[in-house]
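Following up on my earlier thread - several people asked me to post the actual chain instead of describing it. Fair enough. Here it is, all 724 residues.
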Amino acid sequence: MASALKPFADDLEDQLTCSICQEIFTDPKTLSCLHSFCLKCIADWYVKSESPVLKRVNCPICRVRIDVPDGDASKLRSSFHLKSLLQLLEAARAKSDQEQAGLPLCISCEEHSKLVAFCLQCDGLICGVCLDSHKTIKQLRQEHHVHLVANFKKENVDVISIEEAAEVTKQAAKRDMEKLNQLEENYKEELVQSKTNMARIENDVHLAKLKVGDVVESIIETAREHETAMNEKLNGILSDRQKASQDEQKDIEAGINELAEFLLRCETLLDKSAASEIAVSKDDLELSFHSYLERPSILPSKPIQRNVTVRFVTNQEVTQSLQNVGRVVEIVSDPMHSSIASMKEVRCGFVNDFVIITRNSRDELCHTDKGSIDVRIKDPEGNEVERRLTEQSTGKYRVSYRAEKTVKYEVQVNISGQPIRNSPQNINTLDMNTEFVHVKTFVRVEEEEKEEEEEEESSLLKGFKKISVNGVNQEIAVLDQTNRCIKIFDVVGNSLRSFNCVSPEMEESKHLFPTAFVWNENKIVISLYHQQNGICVIQELDLNGTLLNTIHTSDEPIFPFSLCITEEQNLAVCCPRDDEHHIKAWIKLFNKQYELIREFDGIEEDDNPVFITYNNGKHFVSFVNKNLIRVFDKNGAFLYEFGQKGELDGQFDTVAGLTGYGPDMILACDCVNHRVQLLATRGEFITSFSGYDSGVMEGPWDIAVGADGKVFVLQYDGKVHIWR
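Reply from S.P.:
Thanks for posting it. Predicted structure:
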């Protein structure tokens, strides 16, 4: 039997082998990533690297960037552990074979030495050194059975039957068979993976062939359409030319006939008339001759181009491009070059996302079949979280999931069964009580860049303002009443587009001003108020402001100040009191057809409701004149109220915009106190951000929340703040 110590010795040599030169270490240096190399090898690697000027080098194994002290590889950290092992190996090699001459051969280490024990698995006698190894090395200790030679005395030997010996052999064989069975299962799994991969490739080829056929058919169809168009044009040219030619030929033939008749009259006159008649006709004949001779030729008088030619000229660029309509490429994603990116913390209850970057072995972004990307997100108990994988662009895939627990989630990503470079990763989930952090402010205000007044003027948001976040594409919309427009931003504050809320074709459009709006999936519901008669129009617009339909026109003066959509797609309209126009305060709930369901309870004569929001089956309404928030059920029945005027936690001074924050909390704008308060749905204070002393935010007026928990606060002066 092969020596049991040889694998152990080989493992030791493997530990002492440089992965660059494949030789035993010479002056080993250990990098901060814990990979070790010979000094000469890592120095040569550093010189050949792309960034010696930066005094950095990428580890040849894991590619982690390592700082090289003073650009001198010899100053990298030495490995005293490896040096000790090298000394041990050198000492072992230095044993003198002559000292062992004459001693029997150990079956394990194959050295001449005094034999002290018998190993069943090694099938022979072993020396004292190998005996110690059998006692200390776990694998040898568990799998090898050793008997000391000193115990081989008749009274110490246990005699066993052949059946018992066979049973021992059988058990050992069963253990080996279990390992082989597991190996067989692994082979079967690999076979399934291979067949699945081949089926995927066959499907890819089939789809590629279909695409080639579609492209060719499209080109043929385009060519046929072009042929039809060119033939129609040629036929038109021919028809026009034929008509013009026919017209000029008619004129020429008419001229010929006229001349023939005149010549015939002349001949008749000259042949048959008397001399006196000819003399009398002299002047008329000369005049006629002169008239005919002075007539211009007919052809030059016609608007026909005599030198025109008709040809079909091919477009050489199109002809050349058709020679290279497309190409077939084989894309192989390399898991070791692919990675997880853009990971961030998110508050519990909100959607988090990150990006998977797929690259080939040349580190180039490449497309990867979504079916081969396996993403698993697990909580600490091992429960998998539902996630969504979408392709953003070539080589970039966004993964989103909802963080339902305040725990650390583990993310594992495999491509075709192999883990990508930095998988697994852990993502922490923030507690709801975690302090809010100000991220940025966008939308310029009047104090900034005053020298660019014209450009600045178009960027300002003026008048009454509202803010809302689209739950589908996470776009932010801000309503500017004075300019009668809606401005759209992305989630980091970059301007995307803007459009007018009031169509100039609407009757008396100059008197209509927007008062409130709300996203409804990929539509905008907006209310327009007529400044003279107080009549309100509620409309639906698409994402670009195009009018879809008018869903309601009031028959009495009303002033909708805020709107919200429920989970059942019902529309709640909040109308504050307006004594000047004799408008009383009310809140009404309408269905999708804008049919009145009911009017909310508990609205008193002196109440002034301004903002309304819906969260988890309840309506929350801010009453600015009483500095309180009233809560109604989904049908508008009054439940309870909380809040009072003041500066303490849970108190308000001009309570304004509201929005839900998770299923059990709301955010409320405390305008004059210059803060936003996070409250439980029963009114208990949780935390607040900004405030008098922060100087970050003044006069928060309206508020909205993104799917990932980012908070967008609209100040009364038009600034928008992002908090997380």
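Confidence is low (pLDDT under 50) at residues 1-5, 444-462. That should answer part of your original question.
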